[in-house]
Amino acid sequence: MDNPSFQAYRLHAGTDGAPPEGRFETLSADALSAGDTLIKVAYAGLNYKDALAQAGRGNIIRQYPRIGGIDLSGIVVHSAAPALAPGQEVVVHGFGIGVDCDGGYAEYARVPHEWVLPLPAGISLRDAAVLGAAGYTAALSLHWMEHCGLTPDQGEVLVTGATGGVAGVAIDILSQRGYRVCAMSGKPDAAAYLRSLGAQEVIAPPDPAAAIKPLMSARWAGVVDSVGGSVLAHALASTRPDGVAAAFGNAGGAELPTSVIPFILRGVKLLGINANSPMPLRSQVWNKLATEYRPARLDLIARVIEPRELPQALAAMLERGSIGRSVARFS
């Protein structure tokens, strides 16, 4: 079936400065963005970036109409690439899907074959979507942190923004690899959940008004940060000599009120994590997710919803009303 009809959740430009309007529509594959590979979508993840796009914040989507969803898992219908056979299970994230071209919030997606990664053995379509861009970011962070010498015997690893999707997977992976994990969260009711993922301790974020000294008591061997802003600055000032921090988010602000002191006096390493990686690195990290980085508690992190629940679930993410990873089931 080269041009199937299907349901999609598509955003349309708002009028007179209003936020985009999202609605469910019946489309054909001809209406999708260009690409040589058609995928029947199984699951699509809900990400903070998707929530911002639906609300019209951050100038994320610039051309409408657009099907959102920056990651998906599914089955190849047909492809111009011989390596992608019909029926093959795949995952797609990044490369502008759901932003510059149509994404995963539909029963079918069409993308260039260069963006499609065959699933490693042992990862189901549901688990691939639960991991998605978030799980990949968590694994990529640990990949580079360990590349810089981080090992479990060096001390505690702090995970900030701990109830988020990336952080939840990071806690799970770190604990499986023998790290002692401290989860930082502003949601006191989530402490039991975070401990169930493998966190040995749960702490509150620092007071945003608290002074950030150039150096504070050294505690963290590693930091996995999705918050940025003063939270990351406090963490860097508290990182042990030769410790390493991975930063990939700015939920707490894009400014970083720190100094060079942690870097030049303690040798702290700050790694910027860009999950829009080239395909060879993606393949390497996804293979780790199927083996030595394999999470053990995805069932605790995952929440599967129906497509009709997308608008409300995305809105809840902006109100800090979500925990873990939600995925929409399309087939």
Automatic annotation (TrEMBL):
Residues 22-328 form the Enoyl reductase (ER) domain. GO terms for molecular function: acryloyl-CoA reductase (NADPH) activity. InterPro entries: Acrylyl-CoA_reductase_AcuI, ADH-like_C, ADH-like_N, ER, GroES-like_sf, NAD(P)-bd_dom_sf, Zn-ADH-like_protein. PANTHER family: ACRYLYL-COA REDUCTASE ACUI-RELATED, SHORT-CHAIN DEHYDROGENASE/REDUCTASE. This is Zinc-binding dehydrogenase. It comes from Achromobacter pulmonis. The lineage of its organism: Bacteria, Pseudomonadati, Pseudomonadota, Betaproteobacteria, Burkholderiales.
